[in-house]
């Protein structure tokens, strides 16, 4: 039986080895819990609203989407220390304001940026962990303007957690793997953190032995090998011989 993802054994996996995860657009793993937010970011600059809010828990992909948005739009990142200066410049470039619910941004300056956006002078992407109703805002005008912005929620599903584990383990090994292969694995594997570690190691060994990148064929072989080890007779879904 699959072990829950939040089992204590998850902390024993080698997931924190100093690797900095990629925030490249091609490396964002799209799943059921983040597809709408991802589509919104890719729709820029054709947003019907100048302000967009991303809401999701830690490690749900908000910062990755913010980086994709910044790369596409050449947006600047606002910090609590710089917001007053940025708001006073009256410039028109897109901006990202991360963790707007937690970092104590100066509210008059935030109000000014929101007004600029609502006048069509700039685009704003805001990120937060909690719903607007839970923010400790002292200014009702700031809250009312943020409430007008469409909110896109990112949910951390088992699929996303498993995908992030694969991405982290491959990254630690300095292996570039197509996100489609990771999604292929997650859809077919036994759902446990231990299985992620075993599959990643097995695929790495197969690829090294053959002198190739990790392909969908290698992923399928690793899945079949693990299935045989467990004594299962079932077949994996889909075409196991065609690389993508």
TrEMBL record:
SUPFAM superfamilies: P-loop containing nucleoside triphosphate hydrolases (SSF52540). It comes from the Bacteria. InterPro entries: P-loop_NTPase. This is Chromosomal replication initiator protein DnaA domain-containing protein.
